[in-house]
TrEMBL record, chain A:
Top-rank taxon, per record: Bacteria
EC class: transferase
Source organism of this protein record: Streptomyces violascens
Family, similarity comment: Belongs to the ApbE family.
PANTHER family listed in its UniProt record: FAD:PROTEIN FMN TRANSFERASE (PTHR30040:SF2), THIAMINE BIOSYNTHESIS LIPOPROTEIN APBE (PTHR30040)
Region feature Disordered, mapped onto this chain: 1-26
Keyword Signal in annotation: no
Cofactor: Mg(2+)
Organismal lineage: Bacteria, Bacillati, Actinomycetota, Actinomycetes, Kitasatosporales
An annotated Gene Ontology molecular function: transferase activity
EC code: 2.7.1.180
Protein name: FAD:protein FMN transferase
Lipid biosynthesis found in the keyword field: no
Automatic annotation (TrEMBL), chain B:
Species this chain originates from: Streptomyces violascens
Bias-annotated ranges (Low complexity): 28-51
Any single Pfam family the record assigns to this protein: FMN_bind
Name by which UniProt lists this protein: FMN-binding protein
Coiled coil: none
Domain of life: Bacteria
Span of domain FMN-binding: 61-138
Region (Disordered): 25-57
Length: 285, 140
């Protein structure tokens, strides 16, 4: 298991903790990949067939491919060359058109609060990571892995369940108390994305003013597909408290948890927070 | 007993995720990706190692971060912060607040069943990568 995973992932990989939830403890497959400036964690709860192992390798290779195409920190990436006007439309990798189309849809769905041209420069980074994560999840699914969690730098695409009869449980990091959890969400076939100041300071800009978005410290959005969920989390953070609530109420496919800079917490009516958050007792015998 | 060990290990993995991801910085640092110094894959069954395991020091934008972990038969028993950023000003203040909380969480979360975490926190990248490095060395 480890040999295959390491071989698949290349020199930057690490072999993470091998435990998974019983009763699939012997069957799971885990991997952490450092790529795109963050860590992508794969947690596969299905039996690791050769097809699933191959798919994991393919998903990891996919993430590196996305990084090579879309990184705004690489001068030789397609997106950087496009931003400099050094690449014609016909030379663009096929994924670029897909991403830009999705960016335009996200911008339209959020009244411009999501933007892939912040400051006038082409930068679809706000959508690429979620999109790449969702696609990685799909690669696993197509190979037969039906119960998976792919965590792309804190934004997750979940499929199936953690164990037979048990939904996935995802902690939401507390934006004001680092290392602590704000709440736990549960779900099957769910996407969860969090945007906030805790990640990178005030890195989300108000596309209308160019100034850092203020008023909220954390926005978590849930829905079915991480591509949109991630983009909307970014957009809602930029909107601020009241508009974000209004947007959520108008979009029933998405649920939202907000934390304001004053420490107030608001969650939409059907936000999938765990009903009972008491941790199970751990008996020593 | 085995069930306990397995459950705790998966919690440790959850903590790893909790502390990882989304660095508090506007651009990737020049050197931030972890480079485990050992390439030996774990050979023993997971969840059986006991002892202290020191992670690699990781350079973050704010300075080096290094931790060690204590495993008791594979169970995450303690996290020790060996180095934190020493820059002056607000970053240091934040680091001073954050690290003990991270430490608390790493211990306190053992009983919570969390499969993964959304969101992250300041200097988590260096912290977690160092913790990850330590866990890798331990073969946990």
């Amino acid at each position: 298991m480890h040999d295959v995973t390491r071989a698949a992932a290349g020199p930057h990989s690490t072999v993470p903790a091998g435990g998974s939830q019983p009763p699939r403890a012997a069957d799971g497959l885990r991997h952490a990949e450092h790529v795109m400036g963050t860590v992508f964690s794969f947690d596969i709860r299905d039996r690791p067939t050769p097809e699933v192992r191959d798919a994991l390798a393919e998903a990891v290779a996919w993430l590196h491919h996305v990084d090579a195409v879309f990184s705004t920190y690489r001068r030789d990436s397609a997106i950087s060359r496009m931003a400099r006007g050094h690449m014609g439309v016909s030379d663009r990798p096929s994924e670029v058109a897909d991403v830009l189309t999705r960016c335009e849809k996200a911008a339209a769905a959020t009244d411009g609060w999501f933007s892939h041209t912040p400051g006038g420069r082409l930068d679809p980074s706000g959508l690429v990571k979620g999109w790449a994560t969702e696609r990685a999840s799909q690669i696993l699914y197509d190979a037969g892995a039906r119960n998976t969690c792919v965590n792309g730098g804190g934004d997750l695409q979940l499929r199936g369940e953690a164990a037979p009869g048990s939904a996935w449980r995802i902690g939401i990091a507390h934006p004001l108390h680092p290392g602590q959890l704000l709440t736990v969400v549960t779900g099957r076939d769910l996407a969860v994305a969090t945007s906030g100041t805790a990640e990178r300071g005030h890195h989300i800009l108000d596309p209308h003013t160019g100034l850092p978005a203020m008023g909220l410290v954390s926005v978590t959005v849930t829905g079915r597909h991480l591509t949109e969920v991630d983009a909307y989390a970014t957009a809602l953070f930029a909107m601020g408290d009241a508009p974000a609530r209004t947007w959520t109420r108008a979009h029933s496919a998405y649920e939202t948890l907000l934390v304001t800079s004053a420490g107030d917490v608001w969650q939409s009516e059907h936000f999938p927070a765990a009903r009972h958050d008491n941790p199970p007792t751990c008996h020593g015998g | 007993m085995r069930r306990v060990a397995v459950t705790t290990l998966s919690t440790a993995a959850g903590v790893v995720l909790l502390l990882s991801l989304k660095p508090h910085q506007s651009h990737p640092p020049a050197v931030s990706a972890p480079r485990p110094t050992t390439s030996t894959p774990p050979t023993a069954a997971t969840g059986t190692r006991t002892g202290d395991f020191t992670g690699d020091a990781i350079d973050t934008r704010y300075g080096p971060v290094q931790v060690s972990v204590t495993l008791d038969k594979g169970r995450l028993a303690a996290v020790h912060v060996l180095q934190v950023p020493s820059e002056s000003g607000r970053d240091q203040e934040i680091a001073a607040r954050a690290v003990p909380r991270l430490n608390e969480e790493a211990l306190g979360a053992q009983n919570a069943r969390i499969d993964a975490v959304s969101g992250a926190s300041y200097t988590s990248e260096g912290y977690i990568q160092s913790l990850q490095s330590a866990l890798d060395k331990a073969g946990a």
